[in-house]
Write a structure and sequence with these properties.
This protein is α+β, with helices and mostly antiparallel strands. The strands form six sheets. It has a seven-stranded mixed β-sheet, sandwiched between helices. The protein has a five-stranded mixed β-sheet with strand order 7-15-14-13-8. The chain has a four-stranded mixed β-sheet with strand order 16-24-25-26, with helices on both faces. Helix 11 packs parallel to helix 12, helix 12 (521-542) crosses helix 13 and helix 16 (648-667) packs across helix 17 (727-739). The longest helix has 22 residues, at 521-542. It is globular and about 85 Å long. The termini are far apart. The structure holds dioxothiomolybdenum(VI) ion.
Length: 761
């Protein structure tokens, strides 16, 4: 029996421990690792979208001052040829371009790499080498809409274990029986993550078989394995370091071309090489959310009971690799309906390979789902929130009707509606104005959801004689608060104040943890940290019994009969007994420190009995200028039931960050390609619009209390992504409510709203 840990530190709104280091510039990011003898690499981007490099005339460039080497497909040594494609170690690895062949698949792909003494010399040489690359061109596919005829079904499963298509009941019969139907085509554009910190790698070799990389990555251990595979080394010969990360949003999940390229170059020139991607290189080379076309067909009875839901997704992938954004997966489970059909199809295009982008699947897929529900509500003359309540899914229909490990969505709806003042909404579109009468006011809402992801993880904990505790795990802090919340988990598991615990991460010398993606870090590594600290606590308290090793039976006895808090242990049922400090217990052992490992892995039992999701409700008010077509978010209320919150402050930051991400997706973000040349025309942060402070009001975020210990002993579901989900739906619905204009293709920009006015006039 495990008693619940007293939560002294967990939940506290502690400041981020890395905050001061970051604002004072003392946190060193990968691009800032300036090693002795460092040389600088800059890639030469392909100028064509499809074809082959025929020749590269590098002679003059090699003689430029400061240039150390020019790496091309014609002079780079061949790397071990691995199964699954060009240096692709595992099927889930991205296929990358590390100058092993002359194929060109997209504009911007690395076709050469210049290494020079200074960054400026490398930039100059790269720019001059570009025109000296000769290509044989082939006809590219550059337009998803034009290439729809080539759509094909990818091999499943997608999104871990889900099938590509689903078909429950009979959708056609459900549509035929419906009192009202919605049949519309929705779509989302290419979008780019644009983390503030650029992708960057510094690679250094010791001899020819020991490699260290400082890499901006969401997964140090996965990067280690990938690099070991590429270079044919045992994983223990590769060390990956990443103490700080300036955002990732999925773009820093996989290993892309630049990371091994830096190592290829470092080996070739015999010096450490730094390779930092500029924004122009970041856009084509490090993934993006794929463009999608999403026709939907919904039907409902006059009472608002869904009779049919169809959601088909066709999206781009690259012409050399596959990525499926599981955009219709949530459609299978979000609402109760006997007839649901979904599908995912891919179209090969000559852009880079798309990738996970914050809340992949749900972020884009919930846009048509939540807007079609809204369209249906208007047709039924039913409140959109009431329509959702009438189709509440009591079990997970996409997962054999399994019960939820926890689901408090009904309460999210209720609390959200009350906080927002949903009852003040007038049902007709275009019926509300700002008090001065000038701006159109719209209210919109949508459901949010994201699955709980969990993976096996390890950690270790060490107590020192002075009572300080060091906990280590080879995980990452994306800027989300990992340093802080892991110390909070450790403190409570061990029974010491949080300020006695230092948490260390970002080094593959620390125990293995999963990639920080899929909102799984706290659920996975948090559980391992808790396990390590509980083991350490048992070992220390075991000193009371002079136990060198604490067997499970004694650990259980200790667990049931002793309480550790404030760094002291006392008998659970004898409050008057004298407390013994953990440091005294450590001293009894005669050791300078005591270090204990811990690990956690998700169990099949709960996986097979329960479905695990976070849920939420998004409510917003938008103001639209009828003359300019500009839509501005005026108010936002998000209510989430997403497991236990480890830190009220960092949790709120995660969720408001997600909502801001969703606002960008809805109103601003689009990676624009020139469909004739395959060039990304806004591959920079002045032309690629993301929300700025002026676009975002104060966001009101509420977490409902939830302690779901089926998912893991910490009760954490993960909150990195759910905040994004439902935002495009809620905001698109609010804009319709304000204007009477339904924009079905993101982003909802002024031209689309004004264009609709012009068309209606
Ligand atoms: Mo996230 S898109 O799984 O980093």
């Amino acid at each position: 029996m495990t008693s619940p840990a007293p939560a002294a530190a967990i939940g506290q709104p502690l400041d981020r421990r890395d905050g001061r280091l970051k604002v004072t510039g003392r946190a060193r990011y990968s691009a800032e690792m300036n090693l002795r003898g460092l040389a600088h690499g800059v890639i030469v981007p392909a100028a064509i979208p499809k074809g082959r490099v025929e020749s590269i005339d590098a002679a003059e460039i090699e003689r430029m001052p400061g240039v150390i080497a020019v790496l091309t497909p014609f002079n780079v040594p061949k790397l071990p040829d691995l199964p699954g494609g060009v240096n692709q170690t595992r099927p889930t690895d991205k296929k990358i371009s590390i100058l092993q062949n002359t194929e060109v698949h997209y504009v911007g792909q690395p076709v050469a790499l210049v290494v020079a003494e200074t960054f400026e010399q490398a930039v100059d040489a790269s720019a001059r080498l570009g025109p000296r690359v000769r290509y044989a061109t082939e006809t590219p596919a550059l337009d998803l809409a034009a290439a729809m005829g080539t759509a094909y079904a990818p091999k499943g499963p997608i999104s871990r274990d889900r099938p590509v298509d689903s078909n429950e009941g009979n959708v056609e019969a459900g549509l035929a029986a419906a009192a009202q139907t919605v049949r519309e085509a929705y779509g989302t554009p290419m979008e780019t993550h644009c983390a503030m910190e650029p992708h960057a790698t510094v690679a250094v070799w010791e001899g020819t078989d020991r490699l260290t990389v400082f890499d901006a990555t969401q997964g140090i251990h996965s990067t280690r394995k990938r690099m070991a595979g590429i270079f044919g080394l045992p994983p223990e010969n590769v060390r990956v370091l990443c103490p700080f990360l300036g955002g990732g949003f999925g773009s820093k999940g996989p290993v892309w071309s630049h990371t091994p390229l830096a190592a290829v170059a470092a080996r070739q020139v015999g010096r450490p090489v730094k390779l930092v991607l500029g924004r122009r290189e970041n856009f084509p080379n490090t993934g993006f959310r794929p463009e999608t076309v999403m026709p939907v067909a919904f039907g409902a009875t006059a009472e608002g009971k869904l009779t049919a839901v169809r959601h088909d997704v066709t999206m781009q992938t690259s012409d050399f690799d596959e990525f499926v954004e599981p955009a219709a997966v949530a459609t299978r489970m979000l609402y109760d309906c006997p007839n649901i059909a979904t599908s995912h199809r891919l179209v090969r295009t000559n852009y880079g390979t798309p990738n996970y982008m914050r809340a992949p699947g749900e972020a884009s897929g919930l846009f048509p789902l939540e807007c079609a529900m809204d369209e249906l509500a208007y047709k039924l003359k039913l409140d959109p929130l009431e329509l959702r309540r009438r189709n509440y899914a009591e079990t997970d229909l996409s997962d054999k009707g399994r019960p939820w490990s926890s689901k408090n969505l009904r309460e999210c709806y209720r609390v959200g509606a009350e906080k927002f003042g949903w009852d003040r909404r007038r049902p007709e579109p275009r019926s509300m104005r700002t008090p001065d009468g000038r701006l159109l006011v719209g209210y919109g809402m949508a459901t949010a959801t994201y699955p709980v992801r969990r993976s096996a993880s390890k950690a270790r904990a060490r107590m020192l004689r002075d009572g300080n505790v060091v906990v280590q795990a080879g995980t990452q802090d994306l800027g989300t608060g990992t340093y802080t919340v892991m110390a909070q988990i450790a403190a409570d598991a061990l029974g010491v104040p949080a300020d006695r615990v230092r948490f260390e991460l970002g080094d593959t010398d620390f125990p293995e943890t999963p990639v920080s993606g899929g909102s799984q870090t706290c659920a996975s590594t948090g559980s391992a940290v808790q396990a390590a600290c509980r083991n350490l606590r048992s070992q220390l308290v075991g000193m009371l019994f002079d136990a060198k090793e604490v067997p499970p039976s004694l650990a259980e006895y200790i667990e049931n009969n002793y309480v550790v808090s404030g760094g002291e242990v006392r008998p659970r049922f004898d409050p008057d007994a004298k407390a013994v400090s953990l440091t005294d217990l450590l001293a009894r052992s005669g050791q300078d420190f005591l270090e204990v490992a811990g690990e956690w892995k998700p169990g099949p039992p709960e996986q097979e009995t329960h479905s695990m999701h976070s849920f939420g409700a998004q409510f917003c008010e938008v103001h639209v200028d009828p003359d300019l077509g500009t839509a501005r978010v005026a108010r936002w209320v998000g209510v989430f039931s997403a497991g236990r919150m480890l830190n009220a402050k960092t949790a709120r930051s995660q969720l408001i960050g997600g909502i801001v991400f969703g606002i960008g997706m809805t109103l601003h973000e689009e990676t624009v390609a020139d469909r004739r040349l395959g060039r990304l025309v806004n591959a920079n942060l002045s032309d690629y619009h993301v929300p700025v402070n002026a676009d975002v009001p104060d966001l009101d975020v509420t977490f409902l209390e939830e302690n779901d210990t089926l998912i893991n002993p910490v009760g954490v579901k993960g909150i990195g992504e759910i905040g994004v989900t439902g935002v495009p739906g809620a905001l698109g619905n609010a804009i319709f409510h304000a204007t009477g204009i339904r924009v079905r293709h993101l982003p909802i920009t002024p031209d689309k709203l004004l264009g609709a006015y012009a068309a209606a006039a």
